[in-house]
Design brief:
Largest sheet: 7 strands, mixed
Radius of gyration: 20 Å
Strand content: 25-35%
Helix content: 25-40%
Structural class: alpha+beta
Shape: globular
Number of strands: 11
């Protein structure tokens, strides 16, 4: 339902969380918000049409100033174009989500920008209606854009991209009492490389096994069956093709499972690795994963958040910047 604006704002600030793409068994169709870190974008309304880059802060202090190279600017431009806006915006970006980490950094910037600019419109779009504009931002980082990080960062929680045309995004409800643990190791995996090595065709038997696990996972979320969730939470199709990109992965996975994790794999295309664990096991799982990375010669930064993490939101109004 469209949001109703009672006055024309001159500036607005929005934030969007990190996210996990694929969620092990949902390649390109499952996404999960990770509200451990956020990107924050402040949009200032200007008379001159178009989008411009203001201050950049946080984990980086420099970003491309051209819309076709900046996910936030591209998403903002898509919102303005769709609304037929006669004004322009200047965006200041505070990067809280690491880039090239498998944590949806490009999506978080695009989503936060779209939500911030939307609040400046005379007749704002509904929250979910912003999805295609966020995708246009993500297109800067990956063309065609991938839905998983974008939909999760926008809507929050665990989301299934169920139908392409017309778009149907379906929130899933995982069993209660679970925590997401994510480890970001001090290394990089280039997303285009990680996608480029994937086989264009896979055997029918493998497709069936993958489908079995995806269906089991969705059923486990619907019924709260942790045993079925654990049995289904394994990627037999994509992860085996990418595992060599992070030699420490098998040891980290084994450590996580030994500590009680329900499942553990790449976050998106990596290098970050995440696990789901019961709340009471989360600290032990995080500790075990950290030590497994260290034993493999890599330091790793740990993050954790509820699986039902919040999505994008408007923040208290910031002072306009000149």
């Amino acid at each position: 339902m469209p949001m109703i604006s009672t006055s024309i704002a001159t500036s607005s600030t929005a934030s969007a969380p990190a996210s996990i793409g694929n969620v092990i068994i949902g390649f390109d169709i499952l996404g999960q918000a990770l509200d451990a870190v956020r990107d924050t974008v402040t949009a200032v309304r200007e008379d001159r049409p178009g989008v411009r880059l203001g201050d950049v802060s946080g984990l980086c202090t420099s970003l491309p100033s051209e819309a076709h190279r900046n996910t936030a600017l591209a998403a903002a431009a898509a919102v303005l174009d769709a609304a037929g806006a006669t004004f322009g915006v200047r965006l200041s970006i505070d990067k809280g989500v690491p880039m090239s980490a498998g944590m949806g950094g490009s999506a978080a910037s695009a989503v936060a920008a779209a939500v911030a600019v939307n609040a400046l419109l005379d007749e704002p779009f509904g929250h979910a209606e912003l999805f295609p504009f966020c995708l246009e931002g993500e297109r800067v980082a990956s063309d065609p854009p991938h839905w998983d990080n974008v939909m999760a960062s926008l809507l929050g929680g665990l989301v299934l991209g169920a139908v392409v045309d017309p778009v149907r995004l379906v929130p899933l409800t995982p069993p209660p009492g679970l925590t997401t643990v994510l480890l970001h190791p001090a290394t990089q995996i280039e997303t285009r490389l990680a996608r480029g090595i994937l086989a264009p065709d896979v055997p029918m038997k493998l497709v069936v096994e993958h489908s079995r696990r995806l269906a089991g996972f969705v059923a486990a979320c619907a019924t709260g069956d942790l045993g079925l969730l654990r049995a289904s939470f394994e990627d037999v199709m994509i992860e085996p093709q990418r595992a060599h990109l992070l030699p420490q992965l098998p040891a980290v996975q084994a450590a996580a499972r030994d500590a009680g994790a329900l499942g553990c794999s790449f976050s998106g295309s990596g290098p970050s690795v995440f696990a789901w664990a019961r709340d009471e096991d989360a600290a032990a799982v995080e500790h075990a994963m950290c030590w497994a990375f260290l034993d493999g010669g890599l330091a790793a930064k740990a993050y954790h958040a509820p699986i039902d993490s919040a999505g994008a939101r408007l923040e208290p109004v910031a002072e306009a910047v000149a």
